From TrEMBL:
The gene is mshD. Acetyl-CoA 1 binds at I96, A97, V98. Catalyzes the transfer of acetyl from acetyl-CoA to desacetylmycothiol (Cys-GlcN-Ins) to form mycothiol. It is an enzyme of class 2 (transferase). CDD domains: NAT_SF (cd04301). Residues 170-324 form the N-acetyltransferase domain. Its EC number is 2.3.1.189. This is Mycothiol acetyltransferase.
Length: 324
């Protein structure tokens, strides 16, 4: 198929959350890109913001559509770039998806330039999920350099998984959607006080995830002391293949987030929670488990390697060279 030229596609920029129809088309675009590349082009947080953002200044999207006279139907969404902008003035995040059938014709660059014209690229940090060659070239073309690596690690052999050894007086229970949200948000903020994304989760962020089809409170393990105080948690997630794309396997489990409040750190609770969550996923029939971890988090990487996890893939964050 002949690639479209700039004369038969157009770009619209939209502040705030797009209309539901456009959001559905963005998700379909992201699915097509993921099936081609093996990596989701848009993060879960970006998809949440696209669906729920109520502050138009927090979100700017650039959407590429086929014009009249194109090979495919006019109006088809063939690319999207989304910038999520924190209200505290910290750098925003940029993510891009281009349909596999419409690459190598300048759409990615045009999307970046459209956003840059609206807000200034110096305000953004761009994620390249999987750090594919095309993404690295696009970053270099706009004078962005790598500043952070997020590893995706995978565990596929779990036969010798150790029993969780909880500290004395600590027990595990399932998350209670009615009574636990506020206590969990406080524990999460304390556990991830220095984490750029996880520590800033809000009630609306939590509610959005609890509304997702994958959410299962039975797989959201809470560690409490004898007084019922929340000390830590292991939130697991199950990735189920989309109908018609998954083959015979049941999907993959994820160590979605493990956190321990400062007062309970150094007690072995983090390792015990990690093991308990992996066992929960294995008991659900999942043969493989994955997780994300910052490459420079040496303690966490060491723990996961000891448990049998190996590096599987990498996401790279790029920032303008001029501001680094």
């Amino acid at each position: 198929m002949n690639a479209p030229t700039s004369s038969n596609w157009t770009i619209d920029t939209v502040k705030g959350a797009p209309e539901p129809d456009i959001f559905a088309r963005v998700r379909a675009l992201a699915t097509a890109a993921e099936e081609s590349d093996g990596n989701p082009p848009l993060s879960e947080q970006t998809l949440v913001e696209l669906r729920t953002a109520d502050d138009p200044d927090m979100l700017l999207g650039a959407y590429a559509y086929l014009s009249e006279g194109a090979t495919h139907d006019s109006g088809e969404l063939i690319g999207a770039a989304v910038a999520v902008l924190p209200t505290d003035g910290s750098p925003g995040t940029l993510e891009i998806a281009v349909h596999p059938e419409f690459r190598n014709c300048g759409i990615g660059s045009a999307l970046v330039e459209s956003l840059g014209a609206g807000i200034g690229l110096e305000r953004l940090r761009a994620w390249a999920h999987g750090n594919h060659e095309a993404a690295a070239k696009l970053a270099a073309a706009h004078c962005f350099i790598p500043v952070r690596e997020l590893w995706r690690m995978r565990l596929v052999h779990q036969a010798d998984l150790a029993e969780p050894a909880l500290p004395a007086g600590v027990t595990l229970r399932a998350f209670n959607t009615a009574t636990d949200p506020d206590a969990w948000l406080a524990a999460n903020a304390a556990a991830f006080a220095h984490h750029p994304e996880q520590g800033s989760m809000t009630r609306s962020d939590l509610d959005a995830r609890m509304a997702e089809d994958w959410f299962d409170p039975a797989g959201f393990l809470i560690a409490v002391d004898e007084a019922g105080t929340m000390l830590g948690f292991h939130w697991t997630k199950v990735h189920v293949p989309a109908p018609g794309t998954g083959g015979p396997h049941p999907g993959i489990g994820e160590v979605y987030v493990v956190g321990v409040v400062p007062e309970a750190q150094g007690t072995g609770l983090g390792k015990a929670l990690t093991l308990a969550g992996i066992r929960h996923l294995r008991n659900a029939g999942l043969e493989a488990v994955m997780l994300y971890v910052d490459a420079d988090n040496e303690a966490a990487v060491k723990l996961y390697r000891k448990l049998g996890f190996t590096r599987w893939d990498v996401d790279v964050m790029y920032a303008p060279a001029s501001v680094e």
